[in-house]
Write a structure and sequence with these properties.
371 residues
Length: 371
């Protein structure tokens, strides 16, 4: 199974930067990854905290699609309890047409209690609401039959989309943090799960292998097949020329994000006292290091999980913009080929020529003498 690579951009930008320029930088990153040949770019939905300033991932996807050529761009994720599911499905179908099938549609329950508070959504109800909305969205996207459905928060009367999706099989995905709910929904509907591979800093690790079992159980219960190639895992990652340089690049930024966002803004009791980036990496909660370090860490993650299809780099402002771009450059040029097989024939050709070096040299000398 070939491993694909992409980026998952919440985004998480510390308050202080001009938001217009911040949005432009996120678009520039999409263009950079497109040039480097990355497969995917996902962007989230946030309405508060000052850190996440993409308010409509659908609008971002539409803009990014116009500025890129090959990379697929997805909503990572639309918070289903915030929206009428008919409108959610309608917007994605339009994106599917506008991007000629390059759009991916990620959905989730939403993660910000502040967002929920402002629009009157009870956090205790979001999992139920997500399941109900996903049922409606999936039907509208995959069936020609009108849907009549009533819940305590939306009503659909003989609802159907006037445009069929551009893609024969739209790429639908659902995010999963810790509980089995979303993984089971992924299995139930045969859609892609997006698992957050790294915990909130200072929190216990996620058992990714167990998460996948929940997806398989959900699929089996509803007669579906779900393959590991559809499984996407997000992970913070930074690559530099040397191990020490990589660690030093993100050392201060890691704590800025952990404390500034998770602890001081969201109120999550994050405590990294006594822990440094080396400890985080050793625990498997981030991939940071040289090219060789990162290859080893990704291989270990594949073995621990049993395999998955796409590794999405969680993009955090934990180092400079220039070093972020360089990290993705190193990842594309030297790390990804170990898992895509793109350099296998290059190495084979090089080894073949080396093995026949004496023969070719002798031929060249004979030809020169003859001339």
């Amino acid at each position: 199974m070939t491993l694909r690579f992409g980026a998952f951009v919440s985004p998480l930008h510390p308050p202080g930067e001009d938001p217009t320029l911040s949005l432009d930088r996120d678009l520039e990153l999409a263009q950079h990854l497109d040039r480097l040949g990355f497969a995917e770019y996902w962007v989230g939905e946030h309405h508060s905290s000052g850190w996440g300033t993409v308010l409509s991932p659908e609008l971002f996807v539409a803009t990014a699609a116009e500025r890129t050529r090959h990379i697929r761009i997805g909503t990572g994720v639309v918070s289903l309890p915030y929206h009428n599911p008919y409108m959610v499905a309608s917007r994605f179908v339009q994106l599917d047409h506008l991007t000629r099938g390059r759009a991916m549609f990620g959905m989730g329950a939403g993660s910000s209690p502040a967002d929920m508070y402002m629009i009157g959504v009870d956090p205790a109800e979001t999992r139920r609401m997500t399941a109900e909305a996903l049922q409606a969205v999936h039907h509208l996207m995959t069936s020609d039959e009108p849907l009549t459905m009533e819940t305590d928060w939306f009503t659909l009367n003989e609802a159907s989309l006037q445009l069929r999706p551009y893609s024969s099989a739209p790429d639908l995905a659902i995010s999963s943090a810790r509980t089995p709910n979303s993984m089971r929904l992924a299995g139930r509907y045969g859609i892609s799960p997006i698992s957050f591979g790294a915990p909130i800093p200072g929190m216990p690790r996620v058992d990714l292998a167990a998460q996948w079992r929940h997806a398989e159980e959900g699929a089996a219960e509803h007669g579906n097949n779900i393959g590991r190639s559809s499984w996407r895992i997000t992970m913070p990652m930074h690559v530099a020329e040397t191990t020490q340089e990589a660690m030093d690049d993100v050392r201060a930024g890691l704590k800025d994000v952990a404390h500034g966002y998770f602890r001081d803004t969201l109120g999550i009791p994050v405590n990294l006292a006594g822990k440094d980036i080396e400890d985080i990496v050793a625990d498997g909660d981030a991939i940071v290091g040289s090219v060789d370090d990162c290859v080893i860490a990704i291989q270990r993650l594949l073995e621990e999980t049993g395999g998955f299809g796409t590794l999405l780099v969680t993009v955090r402002d934990w180092t400079s913009w220039e070093k972020t771009l360089r990290s993705f450059d190193l990842l594309a040029r030297y790390v990804a080929p170990h898992f895509s097989g793109s350099t296998a024939r290059v190495h084979r050709s090089s080894d073949w020529v080396k093995s026949k070096q004496s023969h070719f040299v002798a031929q060249a000398k004979a030809a020169k003498a003859s001339a």
